[in-house]
Amino acid sequence: MSTGIRRHRIRRWQPALWVGAAALLLSACGAAPSTASKGGKGPIVIGASLSLSGDFSADGQAFQRGYELWAAYVNSHGGLLGRKVKLDIVSDASSPTQVVTNYQTLISLDHVNLVFGPFSTLLTVPSSKVAARYGYAFVEGAGGAPLAFAAGLHNMFDVSLPVKDDLVPFAQWIASLPASERPKTAAYPTSNDPFTEPQLPVAERILQAAGVRTVYSRVFPAEVTDYTPIADQVAARHAQVVLLGSVDVPTVSAFIQAFAQQHYNPKAFIATAGPDQGAAFVNAVGANNTGGVMVPNGWYPGFKNAASQAMVQAYIAKYGGTPSGVNSDVAEAYSVGQVVAQAVEATHSLNNAKIIAYLHSGVVLQSVQGPVQFDSLGENGKAVAFAFQWIHGTLTQVLPTNAPGSSPPVYPKPPWGS
Amino acid sequence: MAALYGAVIDGILTGGVYALMAAGLTLIFGVMDIINIAQGVLVVLAAYLSYFLSIRFGLDLFVGLLVTIPVLFLLGVAVEWLFIRRLRSQEKTAMSILVTYAVAIIIEGVLSVTFGVNYVQLHGWYVTRSFQLLGFYLPYIYVFGFLLAAALLAVLFVILYRTRFGRSVRASLQNRTAAQLIGVNVARVSTLTFGLGVAVTAAGGMIFGATNAFNPNSGYDLISRLLAIVILGGLGSIGGALAAAVAMLVVEDVVAVIWSPVWSDVVFFVALVAVLLIRPVGLFGRAAARAQ
After folding, report:
1. Residue among A12, A61, A232 whose CB faces B117 most closely
2. What is the pLDDT of residue B286?
């Protein structure tokens, strides 16, 4: 091949190479270096795959902040077993395929000491199997759907509230209302996601037993071109309470916008995820549309727990904003670090088999989300389900009504735009 | 029956918005044989520009278009000059996918660094309000979006079929070599066409941002739908993009209402395949477009 032809070919590919190199450089700016400690004196390296881009990027980056806040706290208090903690976080671009590759790389090539889980049940399911194959403890904070535990993996532990119980306090509260105030009809639109789908049937059974008739119950795909006809149908049925199975802010925002456009204001509106995203939720739906919107969870920024309040303050000191703007993902991630740290300190070891055995021993651990005790499946049996409501621009704990720290829920919900 | 009519109305109005987003994609392909994978991210970029003007200067979203349309036109010109023009004609179409994908990644990265990844949405009095007509509530934002789409597509039509520049564009579209021989500066026409295609996206991005919460990654969900629209409408046909966008949204919305939202995409793509089997160039494919 002559030099001339080679140069010609290089020139032909030059724009693509140039742009590709720039793209790689840009993406490299957001990725942490991949190194691991093999010795016993260097830092303890903890690997995690997070969705720093793609559909779950908002949650993934909130999780990254949670992990980093925890690592900063631990390192400022002497580290683990006297060693500094170093996080090796790689991006999976919200892909269930990439997350598998990432954990294989972290464990088999980078030889990280420990791993933390990714964001969402969708990514937890495949990645937990990789960790199980290598005998790593897999503690995570956002994979609490029944599907994640269906494989019966011995190494998987979810520090957060089991998903299927999320809507129980809300449904029980509606059922407990006096008959004259209780909604007569309910709608249950839900995204076909392992996080949302298990929640609605539990709530629907409670509400039907209380005489609340189902007028709409349909599943929609995770990515919808147009939410308007679905939301319009809910509005047309005049359901007095809406339980929306959502995984993100755009879904909730689309429904709220369509409801407002149709002049439809249910007496109560709860969404399984989205309203817990703090400032992101407020920015999307507009501050005057947040009033009365509810969300189930195991944590909120005003949670009466000293460690939680310290974490919120640390978050604001580092990233700015107000307590209401702190995403619950941050607390879920932070809790993962706390639980693993307690297991490491208790076993005086980085041996994953010992850590797994310890976590299965029935010991009660502490986290910013409250106490943690794993059952045989790895679910947190101590987690308490709450429901929170946006009241005057603040996410406020309202359910269970008799729980410490609960304020009376606003019912019926104020009209949109008020 | 009211639900069915409602779904048809929703589909037509939302289809107008999607047509606005897809118009630039089909125009660029028609003239340049460039498949602009960055179109989805450009829509999101346009939405962020509107967001910035709204938050920083309090500009109304529609008034903001007076700024965002020229800005995106210049961006389109710059992208064409920097990246597209250097592609050689033999592999231009295939290579354009790679190059514009890289452009999309760069824009997404810049947006992530500048605005973060939290979702935002555009707000204005018309975003959540609606008016009643024949028993249906019609959201102002969708009606305005549809009217804007009709107006901009009409302007594009006038530019393409009633101006000297438009004649040059169509000549380049039909036969680049022949166009050069009769004195058309094809390189300049390509640059301006790319700029025009990206500029139209400013309006689509603004309406998209007012009807959807978005973050820098939102463009990837969009691009597959936009490609489906321009393929159904016929690559290169602006009218085809409008017809296909409306058809896609009406089919999906009607299926969501009378059957199930889960089947919306399936039914549309089955219809798309059926149309392409009968008419491989799409509803208003290149041959038809050239005959206009």
Report:
1. A61
2. 61
What is the pLDDT, as a whole number, of residue B276? 87
Residues A282 and A391 in one domain: yes
Q: Which residue in A15, A233, A253 is closest to B257 by CB distance?
A: A233
A68 and A203 assigned to the same domain: no
pLDDT in tens, A184-217: 999 999 998 888 989 999 999 999 999 999 999 9
Report d(CA A145, CA A377) in Å as an integer: 12
A74 within a domain of the structure (yes/no): yes
d(CA B212, CA A303): 31
- The domain in which residue B190 lies consists of 2-290
User: Which CATH number covers residue B135?
Assistant: 1.10.3470
pLDDT the model gives residue B72? 95
Question: Between B7, B213, B221, which is nearest A223 by CB?
Answer: B221
Residues A125, A244: one domain?
Answer: no
Please name the residue of chain A whose CA is at the shortest distance from the CA of residue B107.
A23
Task: Tell me what percent of chain A is helix, strand and coil, each rounded to the nearest 5.
Answer: 45, 15, 40
Structural domain count of chain B: 1
**Cα A75 from Cα A245, distance rounded (Å):** 39
Where do runs of H (alpha helix) occur along A197-248? 199-209, 228-236
In chain A, residues with a C-beta closer than 8 Å to the C-beta of B7 are 229, 232
pLDDT of residue B291: 41
What are the residue ranges in chain A where pLDDT is below 50?
1-17, 19-39
> Residue ranges of chain B with pLDDT lower than 50?
288-292
The C-alpha of A280 sits at a distance from chain B's nearest C-alpha, in angstroms, of 5
Q: How far is B164 from chain A (nearest CA, A)?
A: 31
Q: Cβ of B95 under 8 Å from any chain A Cβ?
A: yes
* A96 lies in the same domain as A158: yes
Contact A254 B252 (CB under 8 A): no
Q: Residue A284: which of B95, B121, B262 has the nearest Cβ? A: B121
Q: Cα-flanking dihedrals φ and ψ of residue A186, to 5°?
A: -140, 150
CB-CB neighbors (< 8 A) of B253 in chain A: 226, 228-229
Q: How far apart are CA A222 and CA A327, in angstroms?
A: 21
From the candidates B98, B118, B138, B251, which should be mutated to test the interface with A, based on the most A CB atoms within 10 A? B118
Rounded-to-integer distance, Cα B201 and Cα B208, Å: 10
Partners of residue A243 on adjacent β-strands: A270
Q: What is the DSSP letter of A223?
A: S
